[in-house]
């Protein structure tokens, strides 16, 4: 099923997006040269007070957060039960975090909370603080089908392959390779990443507004938008490898916003599903994103937040050492008060990850089984 009639080059774009609702990063962010050649200028030597997307946590905010941590610990609950009601913050900090949700849904689509020092806390406390703070931005949390909601993004190849596993491959989040621009398809409205440690070298992250890319393609190559808006055949889930291909487009419209759920991983694992037409569309978007992206200013302790329906992201390859290993912790969340409307006919695909309630979720503070149990990633991520 097509979301719109077929059209040719030079025809109107699939959906008319009024300039007033254009969802872009805008000129206020400091832009840097991306991994591939780009006309964008090199970043300044210093950001001064930092890019405009950074929300700084003061010492008072940290004290407030630590008080909320102690309050939660006194309840004797597991991290899966973290929500605003069990992680009480001051009105001022709570309102500031609620405004971050507005930024993610109505503003630039990206924010960073800065000021936490992971070395002050143990693994469980770090997870509780992180999940508690982001619950104020999005109180609903996603899981995989087993109820796992925490994903530890790191190089698990250094752990060695367990005995008895011959054909299983680590998901992209567990490998150090470069990743093209993508969304985490049907995973979450908002991606949250807590930076526990940076790599010894590499691992730079980049984000791009798909709305900006969409607007560019409306003018320069609308045929690519037509390809992305068609129903594609997607490989069946690993749980049902012999079932029929899943049909869905790459981009959707909910009547107000364009939603991008672009990924590469399924076609890397199952190249028979990649056609010349699809490769052209994915490559065109990746090339534009590379030219239009913003390099994320990253420090240890940061909590990165991005609208996973509006932004696409990429990562450079990285190298770890024995004493410095890249480690990010990912959560997928949704703000029921501000979340975007689901595209008609595809509601179920966007809702699947939210079906397991908080009291049945699992949130390990360590990545004890990256080949299986503690991987939330599915075949359509990355």
UniProtKB/TrEMBL annotation:
<feature type="domain" description="TauD/TfdA-like">
    <location>
        <begin position="83"/>
        <end position="330"/>
    </location>
</feature>
<dbReference type="InterPro" id="IPR003819">
    <property type="entry name" value="TauD/TfdA-like"/>
</dbReference>
<keyword id="KW-0560">Oxidoreductase</keyword>
<protein>
    <submittedName>
        <fullName>Clavaminate synthase-like protein</fullName>
    </submittedName>
</protein>
<dbReference type="InterPro" id="IPR050411">
    <property type="entry name" value="AlphaKG_dependent_hydroxylases"/>
</dbReference>
<dbReference type="GO" id="GO:0016491">
    <property type="term" value="F:oxidoreductase activity"/>
</dbReference>
<dbReference type="Pfam" id="PF02668">
    <property type="entry name" value="TauD"/>
</dbReference>
<dbReference type="InterPro" id="IPR042098">
    <property type="entry name" value="TauD-like_sf"/>
</dbReference>
